[in-house]
Amino acid sequence: xxxxxxxxxxxxxxxxxxxxxxxxxxxxxxxxxxxxxxxxxxxxxxxxxxxxxxxxxxxxxxxxxxxxxxxxxxxxxxxxxxxxxxxxxxxxxxxxxxxxxxxxxxxxxxxxxxxxxxxxxxxxxxxxxxxxxxxxxxxxxxxxxxxxxxxxxxxxxxxxxxxxxxxxxxxxxxxxxxxxxxxxxxxxxxxxxxxxxxxxxxxxxxxxxxxxxxxxxxxxxxxxxxxxxxxxxxxxxxxxxxxxxx
Length: 246
What we know:
Layout: E1 11-13, E2 19-22, E3 26-30, E4 48-56, E5 61-67, E6 71-78, E7 80-85, E8 90-94, E9 97-102, E10 107-112, E11 120-127, E12 137-142, E13 152-157, E14 165-166, E15 172-178, E16 183-186, E17 193-206, E18 209-211, E19 216-219, E20 225-242
Parallel strand pairs: 13-14
Antiparallel strand pairs: 1-19, 2-3, 3-4, 4-11, 5-10, 6-9, 6-11, 7-8, 7-10, 9-12, 13-15, 15-20, 16-20, 17-18, 17-19, 17-20
């Protein structure tokens, strides 16, 4: 785990301290070192290697490029994304969907905004897997955003039979949307996991730290996340991830 540590042993990532790259067609914010931005104090949080906050201009995107031995989760926030890969998949994901790609032994894919008149905004998350060189796999699901109002909606887990979709890692991802002045508590589902919580919108105080839009707090030591939302409420992306990289 490489990052800034608070006096109480937590990880505090302010939105404006993230890496930033504006390529014109792509406006990207990086919570962890990525591409041409490298910060030795921000390389990963346990198995969480990448959390990118991307805005893609209409009709633009990423051409075919390779990945291997990484679990890649894409969460569209606005607009749509056209996906094609070397496994033969071709699909469009949009806000409300969650896409998972287990790169495993290796896969090529492309990602484009299919609408020339509308931007696409998304989070893309990479996790180190707990099994290397698995067969590549693709999945996407559509969730009801209302199901996360007032609670953490599970979107990814290690169990194919559980809610949401699944990955090759002992990690759980959630989205929650909470009204103003709401108190919530989340405890890790697995011993040895940490919690990384990012405020998507609004504001919240988590374990005593006041967070605004796109601020994040990491809890690496098994403590639960104690959350109280601000006067406008908050939407939270919460990742429950192993702290040891296998």
